[in-house]
Amino acid sequence: MNSFIKNLSVLFLATLLLAGCGGGGSSSSAPPAGGGGGGVAGALDAGGTGVSTGEVADNAGNPVTANFTSALDINDLNQVIGFAEVTAGAPFTAALWTVDAAGDAAIAPAALNPIDGNTFSAAFAIDENGNAVGQSAKGTQLVAVIWPAGATPVQLPALTAAGNSKALAISADGTLIVGEAQDASSRTRGVLWIADTPGVFTAAPTVLPFAAFASGSDLSPFSSASGVARVGDTEILVVGEAEAGNGDLHAALWRSVNGGTTFAASSLGIDHIAFAVNGARQVVGESDAGLSPVSWTISDLGVASAPASLATAGSAVAINENGRIAGWSGAASLATVWDGATPVTLSENSGQAYGLNNDAQPLVVGREGAQGFVKRVN
Q: For residues 88 and 293, which has the higher predicted lDDT (pLDDT)?
């Protein structure tokens, strides 16, 4: 589906982990029953008004507290995924919230637990069947996982037994997952998992080709895939980023016209990153040169347009099937949704919009201050 990659939130999470905050790979699993679960729920604003930090209220006006939440994706069933830190110093736990059809009533939380015996998890994307994908601690590793319809996590096949991996996006139908995994040389590579049946993945991931990003004899040292979409029966588009052998960072496009048997790689531009793609071949991302949100259109022959600027500052990280874009804009970094080139600002304070569903008036999820939000856009 429209995925986030949500790389800023991922990087923010990684920074907190390295700093010893939150999950840190060494704390407990699900939020405790009662007050802890309520804290996860209350951290999201289902009523359509922004929240920033600290104590917030549910729709009945009851105060509930969560130290930190981030809402990263939402599907057309109004299921929201992300992660939460219920109390300061507590573990980060992947979370699933369900919003009612109006998008403005109570939110029911559920923890998406890490792999048994571990303590950290984070969910980054969800498909239209309720299958969430993300990352879980596994001993000293961080590994890509899928939670089938919110159930027990299943580790996705790895490139190497000892390597780290993460799943960053899943197609709407649950048949394709993209992300990154370490290879035998400990280099991080953009990868694609193809399902046996929707939501079930047993085959090793495909490493997306990176030779196009080499520089002479220098291989690309890094690539990552953050968005995926099916176009018709046989075409698959994957977007992300790849570092060239000379250090240049490219927004990457991988395209298959044979159902994923082979992929061709191309650059959407140096000093750019591509975060998400939809079934209409529309891509969104960011210009690193100007730290500004951009979009591309891919032709039916796989040729990309020049990047179109959406604002002078910010980033675009998600796009739905109607072409509406979520991200943030301006020097104050305000959560923003674009309908074409027209922006709608969602936050009064610094914040980010990370995902949106396909409603005519979409529900948008993100984070403002230390709390996640759900908001309806007209």
A: 293
Q: Is the pTM of this model over 0.70?
A: yes
Cα 131-225-230 angle, rounded to 5 deg: 60
What is the amino acid identity at position 51? Answer: V
* DSSP three-state, residue 18: helix
Provide the pLDDT for residue 84: 86
Give tens-digit pLDDT for 64-97.
Answer: 345 778 999 999 999 999 998 867 787 788 999 8
Q: Round to whole Å and give the CA distance between 355 and 374.
A: 10
From residue 246, alpha-carbon distances to 44, 240, 243, 268 in Å are 43, 18, 8, 17
Residues 6+ apart with CB under 8 A from 112: 81, 93, 94, 95, 96, 121, 123, 132, 134, 147, 150, 153
Q: From CA 219, how far away is CA 209, in angstroms rounded? A: 11
- Report residue 148: phi and psi, to 5°: -65, 110
Q: In sequence order, what are the beta bridge partners of 368?
A: 351, 371
Question: How crowded is residue 24: how many other Cβ atoms within 10 Å of its Cβ?
Answer: 17
Instruction: Give all strands of the β-sheet with 371-376 in edge-to-edge order.
Output: 351-356, 363-368, 371-376
What values do phi and psi take at 211, rounded to 5? -60, -30
Residues 6+ apart with CB under 8 A from 85: 21, 22, 23, 66, 67, 68, 69, 91, 92, 93
Number of H helices, E strands in the chain: 2, 29
Residue 87 phi/psi, 5-degree rounding, is: -130, 155
Hey, CA dihedral for 45, 50, 52, 53, is it positive or negative? Answer: negative
For 55-120, the DSSP string reads EEE-TTS-EEE-SEEEEEEE-TT-EEEEEEESSTTPPPEEEEEE--TTS-S--EEEEE--STT---
245-251 long-range contacts (CB < 8 A, ≥24 apart) are 245/213, 245/214, 245/215, 245/216, 245/217, 245/218, 245/219, 245/220, 245/221, 246/215, 246/218, 248/215, 249/273, 249/288, 250/213, 251/283, 251/285, 251/296, 251/307
The H or E element containing residue 13 is helix 7-18
Residue 286, pLDDT above cutoff 80: yes
